[in-house]
Each structure stands twice: as C-alpha cells, then as structure tokens.
Write a structure and sequence with these properties.
Layout (H helix, E strand, L loop, with lengths): L2 E5 L2 E3 L5 E8 L2 E12 L6 E7 L4 E3 L7 E6 L4 E6 L8 E11 L5 E5 L3 E5 L2
Parallel strand pairs: 2-11
Antiparallel strand pairs: 1-3, 3-8, 4-5, 4-9, 5-6, 7-8, 9-10, 9-11
Length: 121
C-alpha cells in the first residue's frame, strides 16, 4: 500500500519561509509526477506546483518567484521551499503523486493527509 506523508507546515510571519516535505512509501515501482496543492477555508483545492521525474516544473502564477519545488527521486520525496510568504498563502497544503505501484496495473493518483500553513503576524 502506498502512503504519502507530509511534514514542515506551521505558523510563520508574513515575509517568512517554510520548507515542506513529502515522502512516498510502500510498494512503488515508478513515480511520474509529484506536486503540491492547497486549499484555503471556503475555497477549492488549487494547484501550487508540480515536478516530473525528469525535473520539469510547473507553478501557479500566484507563487512564481516565491516558491520552489524540487524532488529526490532516490528517496521518493518532493519538497516545496516557500519564501516571502503572504497571508493569502494560508491554507492546508496537500502532497500529490502519480504512482505506478508494485502491481503495475496502471498509474494512480495518491494524496497526503495535508499540512497546515498559517501566515500571520
């Protein structure tokens, strides 16, 4: 069974930084895309950033130049460095991965449980 476990959320002042991590574990054969989404209270879940196994990245316009996504394929781990945080970045951040598990029956989407990021003075 595949699991995604996030860490690194918390409370930070405006202008501050946090580094989120997400490790995938279990019976994993291959991971195609990993990424981060977020959901603020009363809003829909939205894309933050994604990264392919080849290192190609995609960012939401609202975080370009402030957030950086990276990935360690050997560790099945994705990171999100968040800088210059704003109150509008407050949300639950969810890790995402498109994984071919040990059954090799096809790629499936997996989600972490979410980690809270609160930006407030």
């Amino acid at each position: 069974q595949v699991q995604l476990v996030e860490s690194g959320g918390g409370l930070v002042q405006p202008g501050g930084s946090l580094r989120l991590s997400c490790a995938a574990s279990g019976s994993i054969f291959s991971i195609l895309v990993m990424g981060w989404y977020r959901q603020a209270p009363g809003k829909q879940r939205e894309l933050v950033a994604t990264i392919t196994s080849a290192g190609r990245t995609n960012y939401a316009d609202s975080v370009k130049g402030r957030f950086t996504i990276s990935r360690d394929n050997a560790k099945n781990t994705v990171y999100l460095q968040t800088n210059s945080l704003e109150s509008e970045d407050t949300a639950v951040y969810f890790c995402y991965a498109n994984i071919l598990d040990g059954t090799r029956s096809g790629f499936r989407d997996y989600w972490g449980q979410g980690t809270q990021v609160t930006v407030s003075s």
